[in-house]
Amino acid sequence: MSTGVEAAVLSGGLPVLRFGTGAPLVVLGGATPLHANPTGLARRAALLAYRALGRSRRVWLVNRRPGLAPDVTVADLAADHAGALASAFGAPVDVLGVSTGGSVALQLAADRPDAVRRLVVVGAAHRVGDLGREVLMRVADLHERGDSRGAYREFARAGTASEVGRRVLGDLQWLTEPLVFGRHIDRSDWVAALRAEARFDLGPRLSEITAPTLVIGGDRDLACPAVLLRATAGGVRDGRLALYAGRGHGGVLADRRFPRDALAHLD
């Protein structure tokens, strides 16, 4: 899948990987330690996650820009993307946002309805749940204090309710981070984005989203529970929900229904 992958930087400094064939689909991914085009194992993981979309769409996997201010907001991130997409396309484009990228995509669709043709939001809602907010702020604090192992264990609270599972999952992510993202990571952009998402709440403005919207999530998502997913799908003007039984926050992208449902909505 790495064949034909093009790395570039969009207007405003937003990194983008382009691959696949067909009509363009802008994908805004989840939180990541590096606001740069992924390389090595990180790139392979990103391409694997979205490869099914690339079979019928030209995927533009757009990251957040580097150099974020500590008090950046999701509205600021959405404005970055609006400018970059206007420069790249000059017309409404299909957008798919995942987790943190889903929050940015919802904000973008509300602020700039002229930029989004159709919208898919995966593992995200008009705000994260109470546990999700607590985890995001705690993870940001731990990373800022240099306790990356503790931060990954805290992040795992959004993935499993098991204390043992949290330690195993968190430690596994902590141990593999240097292999995936390299050593000596500057986490300031990651921390800023996590805090922005924790403060995010688009609930009062959902009705301003006019793009046909599909919300995809899992009924076992601890960070973004089903009640919020339903509220988001019901709050936009033209929305529907695909809720996958037995899936948590990190399991939706691995579900074989995900690319089928997303592409059916977009097409």
Automatic annotation (TrEMBL):
InterPro entries: AB_hydrolase_1, AB_hydrolase_fold, Hydrolase_4. Transmembrane segments: none annotated. GO terms for molecular function: hydrolase activity. Keywords: Hydrolase. It comes from the Bacteria. The keyword Hydrolase applies. The keyword Nucleotide-binding does not apply. Pfam families: Hydrolase_4. Residues 76-249 form the Serine aminopeptidase S33 domain. This is Alpha/beta fold hydrolase.
